[in-house]
Design goal:
The complex is a heterodimer of chains A (about 325) and B (about 325).
Chain A: H1 2-9, H2 15-23, H3 26-41, H4 48-73, H5 81-98, H6 103-126, H7 132-150, H8 160-167, E1 169-170, E2 173-174, H9 175-193, H10 195-205, H11 207-212, H12 217-243, H13 254-264, H14 276-295, H15 300-324
Antiparallel strand pairs in A: 1-2
Helix pairs in contact in A: 3-14, 4-9, 4-12, 4-13, 4-14, 5-6, 5-7, 5-12, 6-7, 6-12, 8-12, 9-10, 10-12, 13-14, 14-15
Chain B: H1 2-21, H2 23-41, H3 48-73, H4 81-96, H5 103-126, H6 132-151, H7 161-168, E1 170-171, E2 174-175, H8 176-194, H9 196-206, H10 208-213, H11 218-244, H12 255-265, H13 277-296, H14 301-322
Antiparallel strand pairs in B: 1-2
The chains are: A mainly alpha (about 325), B mainly alpha (about 325).
Chain lengths: ~325, ~325
C-alpha cells in the first residue's frame, strides 16, 4: 500500500499531459489547436462565409480520404485517387459544355469510370498479387495521361444547375455537410458493424490468417479499391461543381493529401488499425490549415513545409503514444 | 549419342530457365527488344548521336536509381531524392550566379546538404521509427517548400561554365555525365558485392531481426543507405544543373517515382533483401530509352504518360511471376 502511495508521488509532472494525449487522439487536439489559432489570428475566421468556405473546400478531400483509409486498412495504398479525381473533373466539364442536357448521364459516366479504375486496381492487387504501391502508381499514371489527353489546359464548362449542387444548402449550411455526415455515418457503420467491414480489418491485420478463416479476401480487396475509385469520382464531380470548369491537374496533391489525412487520423500504413472519423478530422485539418495560412497571408510555399512537418510529427506522436502503453 | 543430345537439351533448357527467372537479366533482354522495336518503328532513333543523347538523359536517373536501389533493398523507400536534385540546383544557381569562383565550396555545400538530408531521413526512420514511405514523403514536402521559399517562386541565377561542361559536355564522343554514371555504377557494384557493408545491406533487408541478432548494427546500415541515396541525388542534381544551366523548381520532378520504377523493373523487390545494381541500371536505361523513344515519335505528353504507366504495370506483372 505504501508502495503505491510512494510511486504515485514520484510520478512526473507530465503525467496529466500524457494521459490527455492518450485519451484523445492527437489529430483532434491538433484540429482544436488549429481552430483556436485561426480564431485568434483572424477575426473573420468564425464568420459564416469562412466556415462555409472551409466546409466546401475540404469536402472533396474528405470524400476521397474514405477510399484511401479503406485501402490503407487492408495494408494497401491507392495512388490513383488523385488522377481519378482529375479525370472525372475533366470529363464532367468537357462533356457538359457540349451536352448540357445530359448532366445525369455524364455524372453516371464519371462514376462508372472511377469505379472501373478501382476495379482494375483491386483485381491486380488481389488476383494478380501485384504490389499496391506500384500498380496504383501505374494505373494513376495511365489515367493522368488520359486526362491530359482529354484536356491539356483548364477548360470546359459545367451547367448552371450543376454549379448549384455544391452551393446549395439549408439556409447557410451547405448540403455538402449533410452529405459528408451521412457518408461517414454509413461508412463507419459498415466498417465497424458488418462482416464486410470487419473482414477489412482482418485482411489488414494478417491477410493469410483472414483467408484461412474463410474470409473471401480477393472479393473484399476488389470491393475496397472499387469503392475508393467510386469516391474519387464523386470528389472529382464535386470539384467540377465547385470550380465550374475542368482542370487536368486538380487532383495532383490529392493522392498524397489523403494519405496524410488518413495517417494523421490514426490509420496505420501497415493495415488493420484506424477508422474513418480520424481521416475526416485529418482532411479538415489539411483544409483548415490552408485557410489559416491564406488568411494570414503566409506564402503558399510554407504550406508545403508545414504539411511535411505535420506529417512527420503526427506519425512520431502516434508512435510515442503507442510506446507509452 | 542420344544421351549427349538429351543432356545438352536439358542444359539449354536450364540455361533459359535461369535467365528468365533472374529479373536482373530479363531487363537487359527487354532493352534489346525495345531497341529492336525502336528500329522498326523509326529509323532515326538508333543513330549514334541520338543514342549518346539518350545515354546522357539516362545518367541522371541512373545515378539516383543506384541510391534508391540500395534503400529499397534495406526494405525502405526514398521519395525525397527528386527534391534533393531540385534543391541542389536552386542552391547552386542562386549562390554561383554564373561564375566559377565559388564552384568548389558550392559543390561541397551541395554534397553536405545531401548528406544532411539523408542523415535526417535515416534518423527519423530508424530512431523515431517513422515508416520510410511517410517520412520521405514528408521530407519531400519540406524540401519543396524550402526550394520555393529560397527562390520566392522565381528561381534566379545561372550555372557556371565548368558545371555546364559536366552536364552538357563531351569527353571524346561520350557525354561527360555517362562517365559519372558508369563510375558510380561500378563503385556501387563493388561495394554491394565485395564489401561487408554490401552484405549488411542485403542482410538488413532480408531479415532485420536476424541481422541485428548476428551483430550487424542495423540502424547504422539503414542510415548509411539513406545518406548514400541523398548524396547520389545531390550529385545528380549538380550534373543536371550543369545540363540545364539555370535554376529550376521542376528539375527533379518525377525522379522519385521514376527511380522507384527503374529499381522495381530491374528486379529489386519492395519487400527488401533482393535486387542488383546491374538490374537497376538496366531499369533506368530502359525507362530512359522508353521516354526518349516516345518523345522522338512525337507522342504528346499525355500519351507518353499512358505508355509509361502501362509499361510499369506490365513490367511488375512479369516480375511478380518470375519471383514465384
Amino acid at each position: 500500500m505504501s508502495n503505491v502511495l510512494v510511486s504515485s508521488k514520484t510520478k512526473s509532472a507530465s503525467q496529466p499531459l500524457k494521459r490527455l494525449v492518450q485519451r484523445i487522439r492527437p489529430v483532434y487536439l491538433a484540429l482544436f489547436l488549429l481552430i483556436l489559432i485561426g480564431i485568434f489570428t483572424q477575426p473573420t475566421f468564425l464568420t459564416l462565409r469562412n466556415v462555409r468556405n472551409i466546409i466546401l473546400s475540404s469536402t472533396p478531400w474528405a470524400i476521397a480520404t474514405i477510399g484511401q483509409t479503406l485501402a490503407l486498412l487492408t495494408a494497401g495504398i491507392d495512388l490513383s485517387i488523385g488522377p481519378v479525381v482529375s479525370l472525372t473533373n475533366v470529363i464532367a466539364a468537357f462533356l457538359m459544355k457540349n451536352h448540357p442536357n445530359q448532366v445525369w448521364g455524364i455524372v453516371l459516366l464519371c462514376i462508372v469510370c472511377g469505379t472501373l479504375v478501382g476495379l482494375i486496381n483491386g483485381f491486380a492487387i488481389a488476383r494478380l498479387r501485384l504490389n499496391p504501391f506500384i500498380i496504383t502508381l501505374a494505373t494513376g499514371t495511365i489515367i493522368q495521361g488520359v486526362t491530359l489527353g482529354i484536356m491539356y489546359q483548364p477548360g470546359g464548362l459545367v451547367t448552371e444547375g450543376f454549379l448549384q449542387i455544391s452551393r446549395a444548402g439549408l439556409g447557410a449550411i451547405p448540403y455538402a455537410l449533410f452529405f459528408l455526415i451521412i457518408l461517414y455515418g454509413i461508412g463507419t457503420f459498415i466498417l465497424k458493424r458488418t462482416p464486410f467491414g470487419l473482414s477489412i480489418y482482418a485482411i489488414g491485420g494478417n491477410e493469410t490468417s483472414a483467408h484461412l478463416s474463410g474470409i473471401r479476401t480477393s472479393l473484399v480487396i476488389v470491393v475496397v479499391y472499387s469503392i475508393s475509385g467510386f469516391l474519387a469520382a464523386l470528389a472529382g464531380l464535386f470539384l467540377a461543381s465547385r470550380i465550374g470548369s475542368g482542370d487536368p491537374l486538380v487532383g495532383d496533391p490529392i493522392s498524397l493529401d489523403t494519405i496524410t489525412a488518413a495517417v494523421l487520423g490514426g490509420t496505420s500504413l501497415f493495415g488493420g488499425v484506424g477508422d474513418l472519423i480520424g481521416g475526416l478530422a485529418g482532411a479538415f485539418f489539411i483544409g483548415i490549415l490552408s485557410t489559416v495560412l491564406n488568411l494570414n497571408n503566409v506564402s503558399p510555399f510554407y504550406q508545403w513545409i508545414s504539411k511535411g512537418v505535420i506529417l512527420i510529427a503526427a506519425l512520431a506522436l502516434d508512435l510515442w503514444r503507442q510506446a507509452i502503453d | 549419342m542420344t544421351t549427349v543430345t538429351t543432356s545438352s537439351a536439358v542444359g539449354i533448357r536450364k540455361f533459359v530457365q535461369k535467365i528468365s527467372i533472374n529479373p536482373s537479366v530479363v531487363i537487359w533482354i527487354v532493352i534489346v527488344l525495345l531497341l529492336l522495336l525502336a528500329r522498326i518503328v523509326s529509323s532515326g532513333f538508333l543513330t549514334p548521336t541520338h543514342m549518346l543523347n539518350v545515354a546522357r538523359q539516362a545518367s541522371g536517373l541512373g545515378i539516383v536509381t543506384i541510391g534508391q536501389t540500395i534503400v529499397i533493398i534495406t526494405g525502405g523507400i526514398d521519395l525525397s531524392n527528386g527534391m534533393v536534385i531540385t534543391l541542389v540546383d536552386i542552391v547552386a544557381a542562386t549562390i554561383l550566379r554564373g561564375k566559377d569562383t565559388l564552384l568548389f565550396p558550392v559543390i561541397l555545400l551541395c554534397l553536405a546538404i545531401g548528406c544532411l538530408i539523408g542523415l535526417v531521413n535515416g534518423l527519423l526512420i530508424t530512431k523515431v521509427k517513422i515508416p520510410p514511405l511517410i517520412e520521405t514523403l514528408g521530407m519531400f514536402g519540406i524540401l519543396k517548400g524550402t526550394a520555393y521559399v529560397i527562390t520566392s517562386g522565381a528561381p534566379k541565377g545561372d550555372i557556371p561554365p565548368s558545371l555546364n561542361f559536366v552536364g552538357s559536355g563531351f569527353i571524346g564522343p561520350i557525354p561527360t555525365q555517362v562517365f559519372f554514371w558508369v563510375g558510380f555504377t561500378i563503385l556501387a557494384i563493388i561495394v554491394m558485392h565485395k564489401t561487408p557493408f554490401g552484405r549488411y545491406i542485403y542482410a538488413v533487408g532480408g531479415n532485420t531481426r536476424a541481422a541485428r541478432l548476428s551483430g550487424v548494427k542495423t540502424d547504422r546500415v539503414v542510415i548509411s543507405a539513406y545518406i548514400i541515396s541523398s548524396v547520389l541525388a545531390a550529385v545528380a542534381g549538380l550534373i543536371l544543373a550543369g545540363y540545364i544551366g539555370t535554376g529550376s523548381l521542376s528539375l527533379g520532378e518525377g525522379y522519385n517515382l521514376n527511380s522507384v520504377a527503374a529499381a522495381v523493373v530491374g528486379g529489386t523487390a519492395f519487400s527488401g533483401g533482393s535486387g542488383t545494381i546491374i538490374g537497376s541500371t538496366g531499369g533506368a536505361l530502359f525507362l530512359a530509352i522508353l521516354i526518349s523513344l516516345l518523345r522522338f515519335l512525337g507522342l504528346p505528353y499525355s500519351n507518353q504518360l499512358m505508355v509509361q504507366g502501362a509499361i510499369l504495370a506490365i513490367a511488375i506483372y512479369f516480375q511478380s511471376r518470375s519471383q514465384r
